[in-house]
Fold these 2 entries.
Entry 1:
Amino acid sequence: MADGPCEICQQVTQGTCSTCRQVYYCSKEHEHEHKEIHQVSCNPFEIGTSKELGRYLLATRNLKPSDVILSETPLVFGPKPQQIKEGPFPCVGCCRILTDQTCERCPLCLWPVCKLDCPGLKQPNIHGFECTILRLKPANTESKSFYEYFRFDVLIALRALALQNSSLKRWETMLALEAHPEHRGPDTDVYKAIEEKIKIMEDNYLKPLRESEKQCGESILKDTSPHLIHKVYGILDVNATELTEEIEAMVLYPTASLLEHNCVPNTMQTIDEKENFRITFRAALPIKKGEHITSTYTNILWGTSARRDHLKQTKYFTCKCRRCQDPTELGTYFSALRCLGDEENCPCGGTQLPVNPTEEDCVWVCERCKIQLPDKEMMNFVNHLNTEVDRVMSRRSKIAELEGVLSKLLNFLHENHYLNYIIKHSLVQLYGNEGNGEISASLLTMKLKMCQDLIEITRKIDPGNARLSLYMGVLLNEQFIGKFKMITRMHEKEKKVDAGKLQEALNILEENKRVLKYEINTTSGARLFNVVCKNEDQLKSWIESNDLKAYV
Ligand SMILES: C[S@@+](CC[C@H](N)C(=O)[O-])C[C@H]1O[C@@H](n2cnc3c(N)ncnc32)[C@H](O)[C@@H]1O
């Protein structure tokens, strides 16, 4: 932080609040004097350290859902560090996804942009600085293909390296983040992939940069050693947050990077694109003073084995949270299989669960007949089914096709298995929307039962709507549509209304508005929120036009 006026005496000082570092105090005495007023807005966390976790955040006061925990702008923002070989590519100004290779170009370095006045082009921490380096392209590059020439995956490393010149404090903050070099040594694939990026950077940009530095006698980037570039990519891989909707980018935050992982996170995050990708973490669940504040680094709609492998491969640890340790995943049976039997025994109809799910080679035991199968065998089988699910989900499959896959999956997987969850989540949106939109009474009952089952699972794996608010929003919306349809049908047929059911429908709408409250800044969140509001208008005008106000 630059200098600022002390909250008590207004004397300009560099001293800041020892907890949040956001407010200025010229002395410990003045910090103490202001404590009672400032503690209301001061960061509600401190940084702890442990051998197992490294640094982590813990609450310094009790927090209730929606309380803001931290809000900050990025250290580094840029295209993802994975090489793009075909398909969509990012604008170098804002990382918005582009598909047309004949798009506009930055007038100075000629890299692809969404529009000539893209705001990121001039910002020094986005394209502004790197543009001076990209302009120094070597002569023979014209012969290369689009994706060979435009190596978007090296831009974020250049932007990170630029911090050493623009802000020493931010540079040091970044270098203090975990990079896990012990897991990224010369014999690993990730090391080899980064060596290739280093070669590209060296040949295309760093060599010409050093020539240019020699000519002008000015140092533009101080340290560009391969060792440092490996560390930068390690920091990005372990800590950065991925943006995926319309904008494909990686964003590295200074304090948010310290949040520890939990598969049942107690915080939710929002990222505000309009405010320089500011990230805000709020409590999703009540957090008691002294409790760890957690986020999630993986997809909580995956089963334990898939989450465990993903975390191990990308973040280099094994999660031991309560969901990971519980074979039933909080009573959801989200990874459970039906008994598969073995060479000697036929499937008995029981449920097969992992005994120690956090262990890589754990055994799976049938609760009923006790036959055991190794983890590897179970996972190969689930991966095989997963490929089939990915295939139907990647295209606009119709009800019949999804139901076909679901009925096959139900032979092998528990009805609540995460692959079944994905298929059912699509089905509930299609029931009543395919064909002429008229839904039979039996299908309507089935749709509502499926919605209720999925809502219950979602509440268990994400009790604070920390990550699944959009999934939950869709389910509540479909549940509302189904219930409203039942109410209107009953009214048309029997000229009567069940007041309890009417109130239930209104409650679902209210709950959905709460669930989607922090999603409205995203395109899909805003769209769904609008649908919920329109449904509410429709229900209210139906109540009014049928003179049913007395029922609610
Ligand atoms: C994004 S960083 C978090 C900050 C890091 N602890 C530090 O000191 O810089 C992610 C790393 O923290 C550690 N970590 C985070 N959550 C963990 C957990 N639940 N169990 C074990 N290690 C964890 C792992 O080393 C992981 O690679």
Note: The pocket of S-adenosylmethionine is lined by residues 52-56, 177-178, 180, 238-239, 257-258, 260-261, 315-317, 319 (CB under 6 Å).
Entry 2:
Amino acid sequence: MASITLNALAHTYTDNPTKPEDYAIREMSHVWEQGGAFALLGPSGCGKSTLLNIISGLLEPSHGEVLFDGKRVNELKPEERNIAQVFQFPVVYDTMTVFDNLAFPLRNIGVPEYKVKSKVYEVAEILELSDQLKRKAKGLSADQKQKVSMGRGLVRDDVSAILFDEPLTVIDPQLKWKLRRKLKQIHEQFNITMVYVTHDQLEASTFADKIAVMYNGKIVQFGTPRELFEKPAHTFVGYFIGSPGMNFFEAELKAKDDQKEALMFGEHEIATSDAMLARLKAMGASKVTLGIRPEFVHVWDGKNNDAFSVEVDYVEDLGTYKILSFLFHGQIMKARLSEDQKVPSGQIYVSFPEQWTKVYVDDYLVDVDDQANTVDKNKETDHAN
Ligand SMILES: Nc1ncnc2c1ncn2[C@@H]1O[C@H](COP(=O)(O)OP(=O)(O)OP(=O)(O)O)[C@@H](O)[C@H]1O
């Protein structure tokens, strides 16, 4: 077991990078603490596999260091790093039995046969493979093969960490949930540092205690599923997490009639704390993006002059709740209605509670409650800049 530290890490696949976009991993520093269950979540092409391969040693980073328990491992080969990696597609030896496949990583490092046997039985039991041990891997279904692949990652007690790269892609949807729970259970039992790569928010939040959201080669937020939902640190997190994602609209910091500055959407003032106004002024920001999750949009039953008057576009019934789409100054926005809430039509009134209306400048959250956690854009650097 180990903590994994990424220190000013960056990676490019091009020989002569000239701009930030040339980097699959833009300069980042990050720590995966020892024993944690983490997810690395992001869309296709954001750099997840590149990052995992750098940690496991399959890929040498262009810049920066990887440290296990504070010791630099850049120069160590993958087999010297004691990392188990489970890939998207099963890696099994077809001609070997399931037992021999599971035993392989242990026999490779000279573990005595009696220990091999007990460990293989233990892991096979957890993964419900006990009755398959004598079968040749060739005859197994894709699901079962991937379970064997996972088992090979889990047999060694001495690994520093286990990295899972979208391990459930080939698994039948009904089995996915079960295996995710199983992995969580295994984590609780063995207390190994686990990093689970996925583009699926549900997979990430059922497995991990903390999720790193990756976008364009950067980790834009590292937090609990709840933090990602309630306080997205970047507009991408707001958009990517949640179903549907956050609503966004643009507002301006400008003088009102009485000359005091306020955050304005057209002629409408957006309720904003003095601390936020002062912060925006200090940052020299005039245009901001406001974000509010559909769950927090308040839909009024009757007329309310303090709220925005909007037009209902359509209502989608999703069984236990409904999603209301409405036209807000030419753009479609969404609100989540609870099961017992009256379904509105025509002209309605909505408001955006200040507590849940997040302010973003250049896509990053401006957080006046917790300045220490606010991403400071000025501290970000890109190698190609
Ligand atoms: N061997 C390679 N040579 C050149 N470019 C690569 C190579 N591997 C990945 N890339 C590029 O690096 C970027 C990050 O890719 P990476 O595979 O790490 O993303 P990912 O988030 O794992 O995506 P996916 O979920 O589709 O696997 C992409 O733009 C990809 O095209």
Note: The CA atoms of residues 5 and 70 lie 7 Å apart.
